[in-house]
Design a protein that fits this description.
Length: 202
C-alpha cells in the first residue's frame, strides 16, 4: 500500500525523451478521479430523478470524463459531442473561441449537461452556453472535472465541479499540452524544461 502511494507520487518523465526536460507531477490520482466522478454521477441523477439526460461533451479534453461519468449515471442517458478551438499549441489561451465541430442532433426540449474538462478563463463555456441557449433546450447544466477559479474572466457558473485546483497548467485524463499527455490516467502539473520555455510563451 505504502509502496503504491510512493510510486504514484513519483515524477513521471514523458516519452520520448527528446521532450526537452518536461516533467509531470501528479496532482490528482486516478483513484481520486474515479471516486469523485462516481459522486458527481450520483449528484446529477439525484437532481433529475427519472429524467432523460443528454450529455454534451466538449472535444477532445472531456472525452474520458464524459465516458466515466456517463457510465455511472443510471437511467436514460444519451450523449453528443461538440468541438471548439480556444487554445493554440502552448499553455496560454488565445482568448478566442471558434466552433470546429457541431452537435449531431438537436437539443431542443432536452435536459442538457455540458461536460467539460476544465473551467479556466470561462471563455469557452460562455461561448458554448450562448450557442446552446439559442437552441431552446429544456434546461442546461454544466459539469466540469476541474475548476481554476483564479483565472476566470467570463462569469460562468459550473453546477457540478470535480476538483478546484490552483492556477497551474495541468495535463492528463483528457487534458493536453500540444495534443500530448491526454492518455495519462492521472491529472498532473506540467513543468516545462528550459528547452520548451519558448513554446509555452508562444
Ligand atoms: P477557458 O476557455 O479558458 O475556460 O479554457 C477552457 C479550455 O482550455 C479547456 O477546455 C482546455 O482545453 C483548455 N485549458 C485550460 N486550462 C488548461 C490546463 O491547465 N491544461 C490543459 N488545458 C487547459
Ligand atoms: Mg486543450
Amino acid at each position: 500500500m505504502a509502496k503504491k502511494a510512493k510510486q504514484a507520487k513519483k515524477i513521471q518523465k514523458p516519452q520520448p525523451k527528446e521532450r526537452g526536460g518536461e516533467s509531470v507531477r501528479i496532482l490528482i490520482s486516478r483513484a481520486r478521479l474515479q471516486r469523485r466522478i462516481t459522486e458527481m454521477a450520483r449528484e446529477i441523477r439525484k437532481d433529475f430523478p427519472g429524467e432523460p439526460l443528454h450529455l454534451v461533451g466538449v472535444l477532445k479534453g472531456a472525452v474520458f470524463f464524459l465516458t466515466n461519468l456517463g457510465k455511472q449515471i443510471p437511467g436514460e442517458v444519451s450523449f453528443d459531442f461538440i468541438a471548439v478551438a480556444s487554445y493554440g499549441l502552448g499553455t496560454h489561451s488565445s482568448g478566442q473561441v471558434r466552433l470546429t465541430r457541431d452537435l449531431d442532433s438537436s437539443i431542443e426540449g432536452k435536459t442538457v449537461i455540458v461536460v467539460e474538462d476544465i473551467l479556466d478563463t470561462g471563455m469557452t463555456l460562455q461561448y458554448l452556453l450562448r450557442v446552446f441557449e439559442q437552441r431552446k433546450p429544456k434546461r442546461i447544466r454544466v459539469a466540469v472535472l476541474l475548476d481554476k477559479p483564479e483565472r476566470r474572466i467570463a462569469a460562468v457558473h459550473a453546477d457540478y465541479v470535480g476538483f478546484t485546483i490552483p492556477n497551474e497548467f495541468v495535463v492528463g485524463f483528457g487534458l493536453d499540452y500540444a495534443e500530448r499527455y491526454r492518455n495519462m490516467p492521472d491529472v498532473g502539473v506540467l513543468s516545462l524544461g528550459a528547452d520548451s520555455s519558448k513554446a509555452a510563451k508562444a
